[in-house]
Amino acid sequence: MQDKNQMTSTTFVLILLLLSLTSISFSYQVQEAFHKCLANIQTPNTYFNRNHTDFIPILASTAINLRFTTFETPKPQVIFTPLNEAHVQVAVVCAKKLRIHLRFRSGGHDYEGASYTSKMNDSFVVIDLSKMRGVNVDTTDNSVSVEAGATLGELYYRVQEKGATLGVAAGMYTSLGVGGHITGGGYGSMMRKYGLAADNAFDARIVNSKGEILDRAAMGEDVFWAIRGGGGGSYGVLVSWKLRLVPVPNVATIFYVEKTLEQDATKVLYKWQQVAPMLDEDLFLRVFIRVSNVSGSTNKTIITTYHGHFLGEVDRLMEIMNTDFPELGLQRQDCFAMSWLKWVMVISGYPSFTPPSVLLGGKPTYMNYFKRKSDFVKQVIPETELEGIWKIMLDGESSPFMIWNPYGGMMSRLPEESTPFPHRNVLFMIEYVATWLVNEKRSMNQHLYGIHKLYRYMTQFVSMWPRQAYANHRDFDVGMNDGNGSYEQASVWGRRYFKGNFERLVQIKSWFDPDNFFRHEQSIPIFSK
Prior knowledge:
This protein has 529 residues and is α+β, with helices and mostly antiparallel strands. Helix content is 33%, strand content 20%.
């Protein structure tokens, strides 16, 4: 019996060794084949296989969610950093010829890491667009053309070089890659006045599965509609966008006001729900809600912090707040006036003394371990129910924080089908955020339990049938495709992200990319053949 057990153990070890060697051999074949196919376009420092000393630093360079930079995270066989759209064409043609699965990364803010890792258990290659960062501002037609690898910070900086009253309606985090940001919609502090980034895009260039470069006219209006909010990585490789410039004032204002439960935080937040979506469209007033220990005490309390982003000077802001939201008690000393470029930098987390040139580095202002989820609210949550939310947050051993972002204004005037992003007729969006340090006492599972517990409790207050979610806040909890990207699986999460627009997205995908070449865990599927 002992000899038999030894033989069984030895056989098992040999099988594992053979499987390991097979995997290594297959990886080498993928790397070599792709390398040879790209030979005619390769330039120094654009091709990095797993043995290259810069492979891991490049992979981790813009991965803001450190959950997907661990040893266990599946890694690509190769990272290719094209210098121009012709390089992207060749990479797509080679990958399709060799049946290599591709992932595309422009900024690295993908919350589930789908742009640079994979849960599909197949061999894949990352096309990192970070070297395609061109920005061309045209003041004659009030437009800007920007390559997908540029960050929003670079975009804002280059636009402001051309004029202090020129801006772009896009995101609040300056390290966001332009390419992926707009494919999911792209909300920001000016969305109540000008809409989403996707609402302000009027042309794009995309590489399709045949390796062709198509602009709006060539791709057609259906595809152009789909890529402005239908999520990245489904229809092709976005290599550049053309966006409208919008007017911004010479002076913009930011303010912060904090309220605890002892300072009537519940009553003020109840009022905020009623007025924030109706305020002057120059004002974006979001709320951060967190659990905090009272100074000098072991007791916990709820702290609500109001972040006001206003396109104008302090005098007009005070008039608006004193008339429409006096309950907040805003004072002049709470307000800070600055240029629009400084305004977007402070919103993104930079100290006010930071020189704007730092934006040209394209570096994220934070990188940590986190999980995010999203919700949309259509009806005011009563005061008594807010108190129930506080109880859930205070009872938790590990409680996430929430960010409530008001809608209204331009967002409510655009129909749901104007772009794939359908979340127009809502009062506000909720972001749930759990963050942790890798070596902290609480485990990741405790933080995940906390965010899921709060999310479950909030079911009674948020949109239903479907329970909506924001595609740019990618969340694998709401469902994933398998390797085939079945329509049935995708419908579960697809209707949360896109509501009634999901069916049209699938129809467009089915004829534009019939082989489902562009796919990931939450890509738009094709109808079964």
